[in-house]
C-alpha cells in the first residue's frame, strides 16, 4: 500500500519549517516522512498557465507533486470560498462569512482540476488521504472519474452545528459530497456529532452509529485528535536552550529574572490574539504587584493578509498592544511584545521552555498544536503552566491545563495570575498528566490509528481508545467499495466561470439541491 496525501498547502523540504505553515503541514510532513508516499497539492505559487500534467519530485521517502494556481483560482478558491466563507463559518463566525457564487464555482473548479491532475499519478492499491476544508468535494470528483481506492478525509478545523453550517448557500450539496469518503476524521466528538447532525439534517442521510449513508455511499465518521512528535519536540527544546540560539538568547537575555508569558499563533481572528492582549492588560491592572516582573511575548506570523478581516486584525493587534504598553509600561519595561514574523521550530521550542506560562486562548480551534508543543517543551523539574481555551479541541484532552473561556477577559486575566503563582508541586503534577496524554496520543498514534481504520483493517465502532486502555467492540470492514458518485455538479451552469484550460464548469443542479441554494 502506498500513502497518497493531498492537502491545499504542501511544504517542500527545502522551504524550511516556519510556524506560519500551521500545524497541518508539520503533522503531515512527520506522517509522510515515516510512511513514505506521495504528497500532492498547491505549490503556493501563482502562474497564468499551470502545467496540465505533474511530474513528482522525490526527496527521501516522499515524492512531491505540486501545481500552481492561476490568480483567479487563488482569489476565488483559496482567498474567497475557503478563507472568507468556509473558514469563518467552520469557526462559528457567521458575521464574518462572505459567500459569492463565483468563489464557490472557483472552489469546485480547483477541486476538479486537482482530481484530473491526481488521477494519472494513482496506483490501484494507493490509499488516498485528503486534508482540510479546501478539498471537501475532492473525493466526489475522484469517484465521478471512476477512482475506487480507499479515500479518507481529515478535517483539521472545527465542524459547526447544522444550524450554522446550513446558513451557507449550497451547504446541502457540499456536505453531501462527504459520503464519497470511506472515512471522515475530525478532531473531537463534538465535531463528529455536528457533522453527522449536518449530514442527517441537511441532506437526509441515514445514520447507524458512526456510519452515515447517502444513496449508495457510506462513510464512517470518527474523532481522531491529532498529536505532535512529542519526543522530537522535547529534544528540540532541550537542545535549543542548551545552544542558546540567537532568537532565544535575544528574547530571554533582556528578561533577566523576569517571567515570560508566551503566545504563538498565525495572525488569525480565530486565535483570539486581540482578546488575549486585553486580558494581559487586565491582569496587570488587577495585579499591579506583577508590573515590571513579567512580560507577554506574542509571536504572530502574518497569514492570509489579502483577506480584509486579516488586514484589520493586523492593525487592531498593533493598536491594542501600543495602547496597553503606553498605559502600563515603564521606561525600563515593556509589558507586551508582538512579533509578526515566523520563527524556526527550534527557536519556538526554546522559547516555550523558557516561558512560565503558555497562553493558548483561541476563540475556536480544531485542535491547537501549540498547546501540545508548549507541554512537550517543558522542563519536568520546573515546568510552566498551560492556560488553554475551552474552545480549542485540545481542551477535550488536556483537562489539567487551566481551562478558560477566552470571551471572559477577567477569567483569562485571573488564570494568568494563578499560573504565575502556582507552586512547583502543582505545576509538576499537572505537567506529568498533560505530558502522559500527549505522549500516548502523539503523531505516530494519530497516523497509525487513522491509516489502520482507512485501510479497512480496523474500523472501530466507538470512540478511539488511547494505547494502554481497554479496547471496545470493533467492526471490520473490507475494502473494495466501488462507486461512481456523481455529485459534483453543484452550481447552475450560468454561475460557473472557467479558469484556464482546467477549470471549465459543467454544472447542473442536483436532484436533491438544497433549499438554501
Ligand atoms: O489547519 C488549518 C489550516 O487552514 C491548514 O489547512 C493550513 O495549512 C494552515 O491552517 C495555514 O493556513 P494557510 O495555508 O491558509 O496559510
From TrEMBL:
PANTHER family the record matches: BCDNA.GH08860, TREHALOSE-6-PHOSPHATE SYNTHASE
Protein name: Trehalose 6-phosphate synthase
InterPro entries given in the database record: Glyco_trans_20 (IPR001830)
GO BP: trehalose biosynthetic process
Superkingdom classification of source: Bacteria
SUPFAM superfamilies: UDP-Glycosyltransferase/glycogen phosphorylase
Region (Disordered), start-end ranges: 463-517
UniProt similarity note: Belongs to the glycosyltransferase 20 family.
Pfam families linked to this entry: Glyco_transf_20
Gene3D superfamilies (alphabetical): Glycogen Phosphorylase B (3.40.50.2000)
GO molecular function terms listed in the Swiss-Prot or TrEMBL record: alpha,alpha-trehalose-phosphate synthase (UDP-forming) activity
